[in-house]
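Table 4 source record.
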Amino acid sequence: MSQATKRKHVVKEVLEEYVVPSPQQQIVRVLGTPGNNLHEVETAEGTRFLVSMPTKFRKNIWIKRGDFLLVDPIEEGEKVKAEINFVLYKDHMRYLKKEGLWPEAFSSDTAESQPSSEAREEQQRAVHSSGEEDSDDDSDLFVNTNRLHYSCTESEDDSEEEAVVASDQEEEEK
């Protein structure tokens, strides 16, 4: 089977099939990717461990921080305790919630991190009805979930020190 045909079948399987976890399988959230086709995950109970990506998914399916996976446990693993069985997308999550199989611990996370389409439409209607656009509102921009968000604030002391250093350098030049 050619690489393109294999990729087509793997992607079709992941996007179109709806799976129900077996008793030994777990739903986990991806926390990061340390490399070597390993992913750090967290269960609904809060335990963290590494999972491996099987060769059929490598270079075909991409996983990022915040995604949800269905994993099979590995008995002999010390650090790597499971293997990825399925990548869960939004449609899969809705299906599992409807079936009552979605962990409650993850329900609050997905609701907070991804505002509903209705809420976004309401915001857009409010902006358009007011006739003005707020240039400071970045809520409609794409959010890269692979980057951690840092907030930097400059204090007044820092700017004063820089001004003093700059004025000292100017005096030395004269």
